[in-house]
From TrEMBL:
Protein name as it appears in the record: Pentatricopeptide repeat protein
Function: Regulates mitochondrial small subunit maturation by controlling 15S rRNA 5'-end processing. Localizes to the 5' precursor of the 15S rRNA in a position that is subsequently occupied by mS47 in the mature yeast mtSSU. Uses structure and sequence-specific RNA recognition, binding to a single-stranded region of the precursor and specifically recognizing bases -6 to -1. The exchange of Ccm1 for mS47 is coupled to the irreversible removal of precursor rRNA that is accompanied by conformational changes of the mitoribosomal proteins uS5m and mS26.
UniProt cross-references to PROSITE patterns, sorted A to Z: PPR
Family statement: Belongs to the CCM1 family.
């Protein structure tokens, strides 16, 4: 019984590779232009000259043995040296430079159709590695076929133009016009046409039109395969419906569909730029499972390292760092390394912080904020010895350690008081190896005094000279005075302050500190120190949105105690402070100060009156 023509064509294609051209001419010949039957995108539609393949035949040596048949290239007659190679239809129609209209006149119709089929290949087309204007070339060839060659409009023509709409030069309006024109011609859409429309709408989103096309595919029982679903998902992503796009992509993954890697790449890049780092990292895990090696995966890891470290996202930073940096696949730039260091500091990863510090030291000079970040990583990890050691190394390398560089250690000690004893022990161990920066000792004493009173830090205070090789500074003494719970401790610290700290060395503190210092000194009878701090408090710059006057009115609690002590001792220095406050304040502040003085004088006079018997 004779088989169908399709079977015989298949047998001929196996036996004679040159048969493809004859079969293609029969399918898309000038009389029907293909074009009257719906076309399916199959890989065999490409010309065999573009994709050489080896054939195998049965050997006469024995059953089951095969010998390698000559390829299509081997069957061609060898061109003699010096004879110019004849141009193929690919050279004439698919070169980077568009063919002229005169050149198209001399090209057979079946060659033009073959070029259109080649450009419609879903795997993409390039001319010896060079990209061409796919949109413009398809439209040029279609216009020539319809306008010059007089070929009839057919579903194949509409499919070609629909594929061209996926180009950046296409549009959703063009897709709709094609469908409307198809209906006016009395033709029905094909499956390839619907899939081409979905691919075009992935670049030029139109939610309503996309739903219409999906409805048409359901009505005609067209299969919505994985490429079509990918186009829908990408269209939702392009339409900024991020949650819906991610949900549809997740559903597609859970069904076990084989998703193209480039779809993952687009989602990873978009989600990374938008800050959806959890979702980006999940997709990167799946993307890596499809292709564990390659430049694309390496680039994705670098992108992940960049966006995650910038956002201090620890999980993504560690994943990318382990994947490409620790494996020596790439060397990130200095900015990314510093972001990784900051991420390690925030999340208490001392190992990663030390690793990044070493990398920075190999490239450039290590700055104060680099050491500070590493110390913060140790402090957050609970390693006080490591944090204090880093700050000591910072000083040994010629960088001054100031109070501001120790705030991360202070916060760690305040959050976890049990680390205070570890910090004190670490200080004494460091002191045995060499001098410790004064700011490092000061921050430990500050935390100790605020947590348990300055009395608990006095032992360490007496050893400051031995540990640091210098005397306590004004900030340390002021902090201890503020947090002292016993009057004798305050008096001892005040006398040490007057004896060792010059007025020009006084640290400028906040209103809160002066509100504690000035009344304490006045109550102890240390008026010299009290007026010294009062002059500094009265000269503080603007500290709030309401200006200096508002700040002065809200922080005059220390003034009443100072005025009372000054009036009691008839100390005229109070007028200097009052004049300074009056100049910097407003009328309300001046009136309040004057009223306070009058009340204090009146109270003193009443106290001096003799009592009646």
């Amino acid at each position: 019984m004779r088989g169908s023509q399709f079977i015989y064509d298949g047998l001929w294609r196996c036996l004679c590779p040159a048969f493809d051209r004859a079969a293609l001419h029969r399918v898309v010949g000038p009389r029907s232009f293909a074009l009257a039957r719906p076309t399916q995108r199959v890989p065999s539609a490409r010309c065999p000259r573009l994709v050489p393949s080896r054939q195998y035949a049965t050997s006469a040596d024995g059953p089951g043995e095969t010998v390698e048949a000559p390829t299509t290239k081997e069957l061609r007659p060898r061109r003699r040296a010096g004879v110019p190679r004849e141009q193929t239809w690919e050279d004439r129609l698919l070169a980077p430079t568009p063919p002229t209209e005169d050149a198209l006149q001399h090209v057979p119709v079946d060659d033009i159709v073959a070029a259109l089929v080649a450009m419609r290949d879903p795997r993409g087309w390039s001319f010896h590695g060079q990209d061409i204007d796919r949109h413009g070339r398809i439209l040029q060839l279609v216009r020539h076929l319809l306008g010059v060659r007089g070929q009839p409009a057919s579903p194949f023509v509409y499919e070609c133009v629909m594929d061209a709409m996926a180009s950046p030069r296409g549009s959703a309006e063009g897709v709709r016009k094609l469908l409307d024109d198809l209906a006016q011609q009395g033709m029905k859409p094909t499956a390839a046409m619907c899939q081409g429309a979905l691919a075009a709408l992935a670049n030029h989103p139109d939610y309503a039109l996309r739903q219409e096309i999906l409805t048409v595919m359901q009505e005609f029982w067209f299969t919505v395969n994985t490429p079509a679903k990918q186009s829908v998902v990408l269209g939702l992503l392009r339409d900024e419906q991020y949650e819906l796009a991610y949900a549809r992509l997740t559903e597609l993954i859970e069904t076990g569909a084989r998703i193209d890697p480039w779809v993952y790449d687009i989602f990873i890049m978009v989600f990374g730029k938008l800050g959806f780092l959890d979702e980006m990292l999940q997709l990167l895990y799946r993307r890596k499972s499809t292709d564990t090696h390659g430049d694309v995966v390496t680039s994705l890891h670098y992108f992940t390292l960049d966006v995650c470290s910038e956002a201090f996202y620890y999980a993504g930073t560690m994943f990318a760092w382990n994947a490409v940096v620790r494996n020596s696949l790439l060397q990130p730039p200095d900015g990314v390394v510093e972001n990784v260091l900051a991420t390690a500091a925030r999340h208490g990863d001392a190992s990663l912080a030390t690793e990044t510090l070493d990398l920075i030291a190999q490239r450039t000079r290590v700055m104060a904020y680099h050491y500070e970040a590493v110390a913060e990583a140790f402090a957050r990890a609970g390693d006080m010895a490591g944090a204090l050691r880093i700050l000591s190394i910072m000083k040994r390398n010629g960088i001054r350690v100031a109070r501001g560089n120790t705030r991360m250690v202070y916060e760690a000690l305040k959050d976890r008081p049990r680390l205070v004893q570890d910090a004190e022990g670490a200080l004494r161990s460091l002191g045995a190896d060499g001098l410790v920066p004064l700011a490092v000792v000061s921050v430990v004493m500050e935390a100790m005094s605020e947590l348990g009173g300055s009395e608990g830090a006095m032992a360490l205070y007496r050893d400051v000279s031995a540990l640091c090789g210098e005397q306590p500074d004004s900030s340390m003494l002021q902090t201890l005075m503020v947090n002292s719970r016993e009057q004798e401790t305050k008096r001892s610290l005040a006398r040490d302050y007057m004896a060792s700290i010059a007025e020009e060395d006084d640290a400028v503190r906040s209103w809160r500190v002066y509100e504690e210092l000035i009344p304490s000194c006045a109550q102890l009878g240390e008026l010299d120190l009290a007026f010294r701090f009062a002059r500094q408090a009265a000269s503080l710059p603007t500290v709030s949105g309401g200006g200096t006057a508002a700040a002065t009115r809200n922080h005059l609690g220390w003034l009443r105690r100072l005025v009372e002590s000054a009036v009691e001792r008839e100390d005229g220095r109070i007028w200097e402070v009052v004049d300074q406050l009056s100049k910097r304040g407003d009328a309300e502040t001046t009136a309040k100060v004057q009223k306070m003085l009058q009340q204090t004088r009146l109270a003193r006079r009443v106290g001096e009156l003799p009592r009646r018997a």
